[in-house]
Backbone:
């Protein structure tokens, strides 16, 4: 007795030689579940989680928009106007920028900002050295840490007054050490360097705090393995500790660069941009034009240039760090 063997095709027709079951092969049978998965709506739980995330982020986004994005856009817009802060602003186009790039004081301030930037980059390695010294479990180290931490909690005005007395050529400590008075803040050749030296004191303390925090999160197993391999001193620091401190170093450098470019308080207290505008920087030049001469639009143009310099430098370092991490 013979049995007829049938085979179903994809369309549902029966052909000889099959098993009696409809075949699911072919592109349509494979892609149908995927199409249904793509068209499926998120579950109620996923929608609630997404809504909760937006609600948690909303206050921070609103604050960034109001206190960061809007002032930046307003400053850029204001830089194209002439405005004294009281009368109606008048459109000036690129006149503020043309005048800025033709002003000798702008290039003096830019040169001083570059000096600040180069010398201020001494703060991260100095802070690292102090942090390595303080990262010890010895008696009395907490008191020493407090002494090194003290400059960070002092305001810029206090630091400026302390170093103004230190540099005073008649009764200052520097005059006593050298045996004669040196008008550091009264000489155009030394004024900027004297202010930067004063600013390095609290900035080094800040970098020290960052590195002390980073040293507490080091991988002890890597350090122990390096010791077993014979790593000591400089080789341990360079090949084991510093690679783990890369995020801390990046943060210290970025904060130091921003501090160098927005330096204002010490200059205002110690020299007022003098003598003969020799110690002025872009931030103080911006303040001087807005407050003393009521040139709000011109001051906004200086702020835009300063913001552009900071943005380029920070984006450059961010890209370098991301490439290194990848």
Residues:
């Amino acid at each position: 007795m013979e049995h007829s063997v049938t085979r179903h095709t994809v369309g549902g027709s029966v052909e000889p030689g099959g098993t009696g079951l409809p075949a699911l092969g072919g592109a349509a049978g494979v892609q149908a579940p995927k199409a249904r998965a793509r068209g499926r709506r998120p579950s109620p739980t996923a929608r609630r989680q997404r809504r909760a995330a937006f609600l948690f982020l909303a206050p921070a986004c609103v604050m960034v928009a109001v206190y960061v994005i809007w002032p930046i856009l307003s400053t850029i817009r204001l830089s194209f106007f002439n405005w004294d802060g009281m009368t109606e602003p008048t459109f000036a186009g690129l006149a503020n920028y043309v005048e800025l790039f033709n002003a000798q004081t702008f290039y003096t301030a830019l040169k001083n900002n570059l000096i600040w930037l180069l010398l201020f980059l001494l703060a991260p390695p100095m802070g690292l050295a102090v942090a390595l010294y303080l990262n010890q479990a010895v008696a009395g180290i907490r008191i020493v840490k407090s002494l090194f931490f003290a400059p960070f909690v002092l305001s810029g005005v206090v630091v400026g007054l302390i170093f103004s007395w230190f540099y005073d050529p008649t009764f200052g400590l520097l005059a006593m050490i050298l045996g004669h008075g040196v008008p550091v803040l009264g000489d155009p050749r030394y004024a900027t360097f004297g202010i930067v030296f004063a600013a390095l004191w609290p900035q080094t303390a800040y970098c020290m705090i960052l590195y002390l925090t980073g040293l507490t999160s080091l991988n002890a197993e890597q350090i122990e393995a390096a010791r077993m391999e014979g790593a000591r001193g400089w080789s341990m620091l360079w090949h084991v500790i510093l690679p783990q401190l890369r995020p801390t170093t990046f943060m210290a450098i970025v904060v130091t660069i921003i501090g160098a470019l927005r330096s204002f308080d010490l200059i205002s207290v110690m020299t007022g941009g003098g003598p003969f505008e020799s110690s002025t920087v872009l931030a103080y030049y911006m303040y001087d034009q807005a407050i003393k001469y009521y040139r709000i639009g011109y001051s906004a143009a200086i702020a835009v240039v300063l913001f552009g310099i900071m943005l380029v430098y920070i984006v450059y370092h961010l890209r370098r760090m991301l490439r290194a991490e990848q």
Strands lie at 6-8, 14-16, 81-82, 90-91. Confidence is low (pLDDT under 50) at residues 1-30.
